Amino acid sequence: MGSGTGAIRLRSLSGASARRTRGRLNVAFLVLISITLPGASTERSAAQSGAAPYEAAEGCGECHAAIHQAWSASPHAQSATNPVYLESLDRAAEVAGGKAAARRACVWCHAPTTLVTNDLDLNQPISQEGITCDFCHTVKDVDLEKDGHPFLLEPGGVKRGPFEYAEPVAHETAFSSLHRYSPLLCASCHEFTNGNGVPILSTYTEWKEGPYPARGVPCQGCHMALVPGRVTAGGTEKEGSARVVNLHRLVGGSSRGQLDTGLDLVLKSVRRSAGRVELTVEVANVAAGHAVPGGLSTKTLVLSAGVESGDETLQHIRSRRYRREIEDADGRVLKTVPDLFLKGASVGLDNRIRPRESRTERFNLPIPAGARAIVVRLEYEDASDPRIAPVVIRITEVREQLDK
Ligand code: HEC
Ligand code: HEC
Ligand code: HEC
Ligand code: HEC
Ligand code: HEC
Fold it and tell me: pTM to 2 decimals?
């Protein structure tokens, strides 16, 4: 798989000789970056030469306004500047034994333009844009088996995307099956095995082992749905092109809406006898393309059942927790993001719910006098912010009244 299979049509724009020259320069650049590892000295010298190979998102937004607006609200746009990340980057320096080592380990996915600029201190405005337009749209290919980072990068005037053009547009374009159909563009950062051989991020593998590849549904199929909008603001798009864009907000478990569509909770049966109740509950991963919870092992899906009393508090709560645990060399479960990446030595428990899998759970609860209802809840707990207690999002709740 890759981007090589599509018909590549390069288009130059009117009066764009300057751009084309830059495109040629970038070929030399590409050779440099594709044969060296992150932080290698050749990249540093490229950065020192003052080349600014990536264009700012704001410039793209002058034409692609709707896409720019959606992207600006995405976790991708905040990946290099959000306070949670910056805090954990500081803590990573303690774990990694120095700031430089931490930066090398943590910056290339969160601010991937640094692979070319080597601005590991994130001083340049483009670094602060995190996973920015011009990074994604100039990735030429991805090879997960490659040493170092998995990208073949070609920053420059050619923007790669899902359209095949017969007419020139405002900049050079190339059809890219990597962008249109392949999960590998996303896997480049959402699949990661650390130095101890432990899969810290395995979203792509989970997707590959599930039913969605056979159905032809890559990551984009769910995370970048087509929504009403215009590809370009000024109406410069071709006559008759559809008024839809791929949503660039790319939300995941941090959004209740996305969690809602991904999971199903059904109270299958309620049996009462002698002051107790036996519940059968089914929780199903109906629409996430990978295990739930996904991503880093800082997240837990919590199914709980309890009895609601007259004053509306929940009592006799019983829970099941679905999560993946990564352990250090001594078998201790790791809790913080820097620890996961830098100390992870083996995978312990993994009872997350796989794509299209459902789990049946039984709960046996007492029914005290005055109890009003049985309540079953599904919640999502995210412990990736080291400064605060885990954030809990209520996904859904099912109630069974006990009036009679
Ligand atoms: C291989 C790419 C990659 C590397 C390397 C990487 N991250 Fe991430 N990081 C991600 C992805 C992808 C997510 C979102 C995953 C998810 O949904 O759990 C993420 C999420 C996070 C989060 C939680 C989301 C937030 O609020 O920002 C923190 C904190 C974080 N990373 C810190 C780090 C630190 C510290 C390091 C270095 C030890 C690091 N990352 C290295 C890809 C990476
Ligand atoms: C001067 C206006 C303008 C600017 C600035 C601009 N674009 Fe475009 N872009 C267009 C137009 C027009 C199209 C064609 C849209 C259509 O066919 O609907 C396009 C198409 C695209 C495509 C689709 C290419 C394909 O083959 O699928 C991508 C990707 C893209 N632009 C990315 C970018 C990025 C990234 C930037 C900023 C670095 C940018 N554009 C800046 C006008 C612009
Ligand atoms: C250059 C690396 C990179 C690439 C490429 C990338 N991502 Fe991400 N992604 C990240 C990082 C890092 C985060 C975490 C951002 C944060 O919150 O700090 C993230 C966050 C996300 C989230 C939000 C997770 C949440 O908890 O809400 C989703 C969804 C997502 N990415 C999907 C995708 C998809 C789909 C693609 C492919 C079209 C993709 N990503 C490509 C690095 C990347
Ligand atoms: C994480 C990588 C990523 C980032 C960041 C990103 N895009 Fe995209 N973009 C894609 C992918 C993948 C597609 C194709 C989706 C598909 O065909 O299903 C796409 C499609 C497009 C298209 C074609 C029209 C459309 O709606 O499909 C344009 C234009 C575009 N992006 C511009 C931008 C601009 C401008 C930004 C920044 C404001 C941006 N992109 C940020 C990955 C990205
Ligand atoms: C069939 C639809 C579907 C496909 C395909 C899919 N996802 Fe998701 N994804 C979801 C839903 C629904 C959620 C919210 C539930 C959850 O948090 O797991 C989600 C959540 C996420 C999250 C946040 C995880 C968390 O628990 O916080 C990330 C990151 C993500 N997806 C990345 C990807 C990547 C990368 C791919 C491709 C390898 C992909 N997704 C394929 C539907 C999908």
Answer: 0.90
